[in-house]
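idk why but the lab printer keeps eating my pages so im just putting this in chat instead. protein + 6-O-phosphono-beta-D-glucopyranose:
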Amino acid sequence: MEREEKDGDFLSAILVIFGGTGDLTHRKLIPALYNLVIDQLLPKNFAIVSVGRRNKSEEDYKIDMYQSLKEHSRNKVDDKHWAKLAGMLHYYQFDFTDQGGYSGLKDYLDELDLKVKTGGNRVFYLAVAPEYFETIVIGLHTSNMTKKPGAWSRLIIEKPFGKDLKTARKLNNKLLEVFEESSIYRIDHYLGKEMIQNIMVLRFGNSIFQSIWNNKFIDNVQISLTEKLGVGARGGYYENSGAMRDMVQSHIIQILSLVAMEPPVNLKTDSIRTEKQKVLEAIEDITPGFLRNNVVFGQYGKGIIDGSPVPGYREEPKVPADSNTETFVALKLFINNFRWAGTPFYIRTGKRMGTGSAEIVIQFKDLPNILYFKDKEVQEPNLLVLRIQPNVGVFFQFNTKDFTSHNGIIPTKMDTSYYSPTQGNTPEAYERLLYDILRGDGTLFPRWDEVEAAWAFADKIIKYRENKISQFPNYDAGSMGPVSAFELLARDGRKWWNI
Ligand code: BG6
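predcted complex ->
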């Protein structure tokens, strides 16, 4: 991955977090920063300014953060490292909807610059609800906070980046009035996960995979992101999102492009992003006619998860009793290029499912039933499973002689994966992402044209769903989704693999 080979003063910066008292800061950002302190991966001259509306002293703010840290940090909190982080941490009280207040923030940051020797470099993290993105960027711009001669400014935007193609374009145009594309970091926390970064290494670092990674050898690809969790307290957000926007437009599309991309000409950020984007361009046109047989939407009803009863989606807080929001999507799609034409990609994501995992299954084509498989009804295929979470690693299935019989053949399963509690939506992914942003490496962040293509794709499916009468709820919490999601593959003579 491309890195700016600069160090020392160049990396010095002030990280300004809008939403400094919010959930994301408590649960992810501060724990991530704490662990970067431990790993000595923060710049020498560095300050964090948390901007929040709440009236509290800096001391009280630090006490709050200390509590969160104890709850969410992967490393035990010790006095030495906490003192170091606390020394960098500042609280600035300000209502960011008040355009008149930005000049005060500017003065505060300029003063801090001199104290900490951060040279005017800024990273602005918008850890706020999306309706405030534009307001904040306008405030930063009009108060002249983003363009200081000889210094750089970067912007971090949390998802959702727009709610459809139109709003995403509008937002992006606003951002581009103030920041250059290369200074905008759109967070997709899946890209911070180890196994997602490993996809390219496995594909392009192993001759065995590189040569068989195409429609001649691969029967189908399955990308499955399932969760046991329901929407919990996020019903208000989820009602405007649904699984399509929440998971497919972002995480699943990113994984799809990494699995299907051509080898980039080098490991530079833009070379990688360009190849990812081309995959999205090659997705076969998603027409309503195509969708009729190739997409399944679902919503969970009540059920049992891990032995305990859980409510249905419509009974969750802030969810209307007649909600038609989808909490499950399964979809078949084709990538029409020379590498993939004819090989289906099946994607599936859902909340309140029987198992919670993120996996990519590559199913290889069967051999002709001539020799060993002549008398067997079923031939176990070669499967390569990239396990993202909670198990992390690679699983491979291949056929061998069954030593307990004369002529039997059994599938042998090789599994390098191990259980890793840190691969969920945890601060760990943010450690990597924050570190990369401070170094100016945008490889793990989608470029605008990728986001645009992802919305163009998702919009068609969302529109189709909105015009469709759904019989929700149509799967029980604790199941693996609606029956029609199984039929989607069964019609093609295939099945979902839950290995
Ligand atoms: C988020 C979604 O982006 O990803 C959540 O908004 C979802 O709804 C989460 O639960 C899943 O992330 P992870 O890392 O726990 O798989």
